[in-house]
Automatic annotation (TrEMBL):
Main location per the UniProt record: cytoplasm
Originating gene: pheT
Organism: Liquorilactobacillus capillatus DSM 19910
Protein family according to the UniProt entry: Belongs to the phenylalanyl-tRNA synthetase beta subunit family. Type 1 subfamily.
Cofactor: Mg(2+)
Chain ranges of the TRNA-binding domain: 39-154
Residues given in the record as Mg(2+) binding sites: D461, D467, E470, E471
Domain B5 residue range list: 408-483
Gene Ontology molecular functions: ATP binding; catalytic activity, acting on a protein; magnesium ion binding; phenylalanine-tRNA ligase activity; transferase activity; tRNA binding
Keywords, alphabetical: Aminoacyl-tRNA synthetase, ATP-binding, Cytoplasm, Ligase, Magnesium, Metal-binding, Nucleotide-binding, Protein biosynthesis, RNA-binding, tRNA-binding
GO BP terms in the entry: phenylalanyl-tRNA aminoacylation
Name of the molecule in the record: Phenylalanine--tRNA ligase beta subunit
Length: 803
């Protein structure tokens, strides 16, 4: 919001240097982006009058001009502007002058003709092209006829005004207007605000009801009002209005549109003007768009509307997107004679959705989104109607067409002096606080320690006691608040059990040789539904930032595969990554998903490269499975771990995938990514795992206890079994452990053989069983007895043949 101190002085008298004022605003209210004056740095730029304009003898586009600049003799200036003509008042940069960007203008020759200065466009003296009237964008600017040759040009263009550019935060939308800013500065400097109120003159014989009838759903527009001004002449706005607009960063267009923009900046109230003669019928309706309806907006874009868009509609259909942009078919043009002027308060959520969907963020939509002063809607409408009538020689019809009107009341908030001083650490008196509330324009009643504060509707951001404390702090001055250290009981900080387990899991993964990856929590719907560990509904965003980030993830593997693909595409073929994070499961009929901690890994290529003394170690199923086992053992889960072959995961290789259980509790899976999925990601053979870390955290665990090394010798027994290929190693080891006695210390599979001397549907598995007692030396007879029980059990359960 660009604030002109000259405009501001019409409402509140603050005799302060602009830089000082800007610094005070920044410390008390909102941030200030810049404080500047357009004439600063410019030199010797005056009003000129073109006495004679001739074509340049050596150019087809230059002109030789004789220009009166208030001196005894006119200056000869060569100008290439297409709109240069005789008897114009123009902007002249004299010889040795300085224009924008510190460019110096000197006497010289242009194609053989002397040029003693420069006739300037507004852009060349520091104006942004976005505020230059369209008719002068491609040429020089023509000043009003009353401009006096030889006089400095700055006052004619408002360049002698100081501008403070405010960066208004969303919670202080009341400062998106000159009047709101005037109230704020009056409170800061304890000054009085003097705001003019419009005196409406309804000079037309007709009533507004003779022209329009308006209806509005109060859920869409809590207030909707309309006035009609007839016999309006569309023309250029007077200079005072143009200056105020371009100093506020708005391009002047014509007297009707300029008035609506002027009131927007003055009151913070968005308005819209319709060409009444282009409206079909008398009935104006505020409603939601219907499926299939279309609207061509004033930017000449044809838009397909949706049922979430608020529209202003006549009897044929939509004529404007409410609070966002008007329609091309009812826009004001040079032929307009009757203006239908709208003032309203639209549903902020729906306006924001519409503005975002069509990328139509504007000054009006921003104010509707953040809030406007609902108390001055009718006043702003009257002020605009009267100004349009004055500038366009029009007549205002009697009365206001009312579709909806909100009943506005002040908000009462209670707070105690004790609470204020406790929060701020101050020793303010009741009189101090009461004075601050008075300066802010609030009504206040004091009952001993209790303040009952009546908040004006112009400060809709204040509704609770904490807001009042902030207001007291601002006006009293943040730099006046005492600086003290926080007090309270000191307690040692520590991680929770869950935090410790999560950090320990990360350390285990990194110690195992994996590198942590962090993937997006948002992905596509297809990737979100891949590698699922349990049934779940997808959770999609209403307004995703891109088509690749529409759905919250339900697995970590998809993100890790993206990371693997990223590395492989850059010739990094040996990748070992893990990620610890949350996935989001949602049950049908429930809107909010449940967050679950997971841990996952992805490995491809070589786990260890070959060296002069070590062979290379490629990634395979058993290496990946070993990492998972290592993690579980390190976390204290040492018993009941089972790996069960599965074909249930469509994205995984059906013969190289296993579900992971602890006893009967499902934790996750490990295995090779299906070749077709790997091909989609453009990666080679890749192994992955994903586990429910939350279940692991909640499981009972075996604490690690130091056990001294036994001083008694161990005895080993080897056994080779011919078993059917369908029998799993895990089942045999579990049977050995359950059957053997307490002296069995370890079971190891040391050989697997298939081939000659073994039946086609059989395999040979060789195991080493280690027995050891920590309290005595085992006898060979004791071990043999225990070993024979194991062999008998294996023969009985698996029909094995001892080789």
């Amino acid at each position: 919001m660009k604030i002109s101190t000259k405009w501001l002085s019409d409402y509140v008298n603050i005799d302060v240097e602009p830089q000082v004022l800007a610094e005070k605003i920044e410390r008390t209210a909102v941030e200030v982006d810049d404080a500047y004056r357009l004439e600063k740095g410019l030199k010797k730029i005056v009003v000129g009058e073109t006495l004679e304009v001739k074509n340049h003898p050596n150019s087809d586009h230059l002109h030789v001009c004789q220009v009166n600049v208030g001196a005894e003799e006119p200056l000869q200036i060569v100008c290439g502007a297409p709109n240069i003509a005789a008897h114009q008042k123009v902007i002249v940069a004299l010889p040795n002058s300085r224009i924008a960007d510190n460019v110096k203008i000197k006497r010289g020759k242009m194609r053989g003709e002397v040029s003693e200065g420069m006739i300037c466009a507004l852009q060349e003296i520091g104006f942004s092209e976005s505020v230059v009237p369209k008719e002068f964008v491609e040429g020089i600017y023509v000043l009003p006829a009353e401009a006096e040759p030889g006089k400095p040009v700055y006052p004619y263009l408002g360049m002698d005004e100081d501008i403070i550019d405010l960066d208004v935060t969303p919670n202080r939308a009341d400062m998106l207007s000159m009047r709101g800013t005037a109230y704020e500065l009056a409170a800061i400097y304890d000054k009085k605000v003097s705001l003019p109120t419009p005196a409406i003159k309804e000079t037309a014989a007709e009533k507004t009801a003779d022209y329009v009838e308006v209806t509005a759903d109060s859920d869409l527009a809590s207030t909707y009002l309309m006035r009609v001004i007839k016999n309006v002449t569309i023309k250029e706005s007077p200079m005072w209005l143009q200056k105020r607009l371009w100093n506020a960063g708005v391009r002047p267009i014509n007297n009707v549109v300029d008035v609506t923009n002027y009131i927007l900046m003055d009151y913070g109230q968005p308005l819209h003007s319709f060409d009444y003669d282009k409206i079909s019928g008398k009935q104006i309706t505020v409603r939601l768009a219907k499926a299939g309806e279309q609207l061509t907006t004033i930017d000449e874009q044809k838009r397909e509307l949706s049922a979430a868009d608020i529209v202003i509609a006549d009897e044929k259909g939509p004529i404007a997107l409410a609070g966002t942009m008007g329609g091309q078919d009812t826009a004001i043009d040079e032929k307009t004679t009757t203006v239908a002027l709208e003032a309203a308060v639209f549903n902020p959520s729906l306006v924001r959705k519409t503005a975002r969907k069509y990328n139509l963020h504007s000054e009006a939509s921003m104010r509707f989104e953040r809030g406007i002063n609902r108390q001055t809607v009718a006043e702003a409408l009257d002020a605009a109607a009267q100004l349009i009538a004055d500038l366009g020689e029009g007549e205002i019809t009697a009365g206001i067409a009312q579709g909806a009107l909100e009943n506005i009341a002040s908000v009462e908030v209670k707070i105690t002096l004790t609470k204020i001083n406790k929060v701020l650490g101050t020793k303010l008196t009741s009189e101090d606080v009461e004075d601050i509330f008075r300066r802010l324009g609030f009504g206040v009643k004091v009952d001993q320690d209790l303040f009952t504060v009546s908040i004006s509707p112009r400060r809709w951001d204040i509704s609770i006691a904490a807001d009042l404390i902030e207001e007291v702090a601002r006006i009293y001055g943040y730099d006046n608040l005492p600086a003290t250290l926080p007090t309270g009981e000191l307690v040692p900080g520590h991680y929770t059990h869950v935090q410790k387990m999560i950090r320990e899991t990360r350390q285990i993964m990194e110690a195992a040789g994996l590198t942590q990856a962090v993937s997006y929590g948002l992905t596509t719907a297809a990737k979100a539904k891949s590698f699922l560990m349990q049934p779940s509904e997808i959770t999609q965003l209403s307004f995703p930032m891109s088509s690749d980030r529409t759905t919250v993830r339900m697995n970590l593997i998809s993100g890790l595969l993206d990371d693997v693909a990223y590395n492989v595409a850059r010739k990094v073929n040996d990748v070992a990554l893990y990620e610890q994070g949350r996935v989001f499961y949602r049950e049908e009929g429930i809107s909010r998903p449940t967050e679950v901690e997971h841990i996952a890994g992805a490995l491809t290529g070589l786990f260890e490269t070959a060296t002069w003394h070590d062979a290379k170690i490629p990634v395979d199923f058993f290496l990946t499975k070993g990492i998972v086992e290592h993690m579980l053992y390190s976390l204290g889960i040492t018993t009941g771990i089972r790996f069960v072959q599965t074909t249930e995961h469509q994205e995984m290789h059906p013969g190289r995938t296993a579900d992971i259980y602890v006893e009967d509790k499902y934790l996750g899976f490990v295995g090779e990514v299906h070749p077709t999925v790997a091909k989609e990601y453009h990666i080679d053979r890749t192994y992955v795992f994903e586990l429910d870390l939350q279940k692991i955290v909640e499981m009972p665990k075996q604490s690690e206890i130091y056990t001294p090394v036994s001083k008694y010798p161990a005895i080993t027994r080897d056994v080779a079994l011919a078993v059917a290929k369908t029998v799993e190693n895990d089942a045999i080891i579990n049977a050995i452990k359950k059957t053997s006695g307490k002296d069995l210390a370890k079971v190891e599979l040391f050989d697997v053989y298939e081939g000659k001397h073994i039946a086609a549907d059989y395999k040979s598995l060789a195991y080493k069983l280690t027995y050891q007692n920590k309290e005595k030396t085992l006898l060979d007879e004791e071990v043999t007895k225990d070993f024979n029980k194991v062999v008998a059990k294996l023969k009985e359960e698996f029909n094995v043949e001892i080789r």
